[in-house]
């Protein structure tokens, strides 16, 4: 076989491999270009006042990571239940939202919620108690977890290792776009949003479309209510873009996207 034929054959094999990879990726994203997950942390009033109505207005669904001890959970429990009935995920953001107070810039951490003072068994127990609470609200037994402050360990031990059978996946705080094969279901990447423009948010989605990857947004305040905030206009711009391009973009709660990724990662195709 001459050099030209070898080159042609190699190119054909490379293209075939790329086509197969692309087909598998789009299949994981419900046969669309990319997947987008909209997550909202901390169970605060603006979740129900601003975020849920904005999502409902364009028939999109998000994931709300609830702190079980938040007074907004108890005070507005019927509204959380209604949000779940409309397809939003009530995710687990721990019972007390413990963060590692030994790290720099953690002056806001109190002795009662200092993860560095927790035992692994306490962190695991509180996450499970919060699951029980959430199940009492929405009647569901399958959901995802979000690490408070993105903290993964207690004394060097990854406490989530004991929770893998309790959740489909866990969301972290490291930014990045990933294919289904690249996603670590024990620490899914996300982009923490604080003051960025609508154009910035949309540009992230466009990059995910081009690279056929997953993009997860991490919101706290939406139009106020938290020191980490996204402007209502910027949030609205993002939702309108997602709605206008829904034939190309799969927008779903984290639990649904994570289940798809898990199925792919366990499939024979992922092991090739």
From TrEMBL:
Gene3D superfamilies linked to this entry: Glycoside hydrolase/deacetylase
Keyword terms: Signal
Domain NodB homology residue range list: 34-252
Signal sequence segment: 1-23
Domain of life: Bacteria
PANTHER family: CHITOOLIGOSACCHARIDE DEACETYLASE (PTHR34216:SF11), PTHR34216
Name of this protein: Chitooligosaccharide deacetylase
Protein species of origin: Hymenobacter cavernae
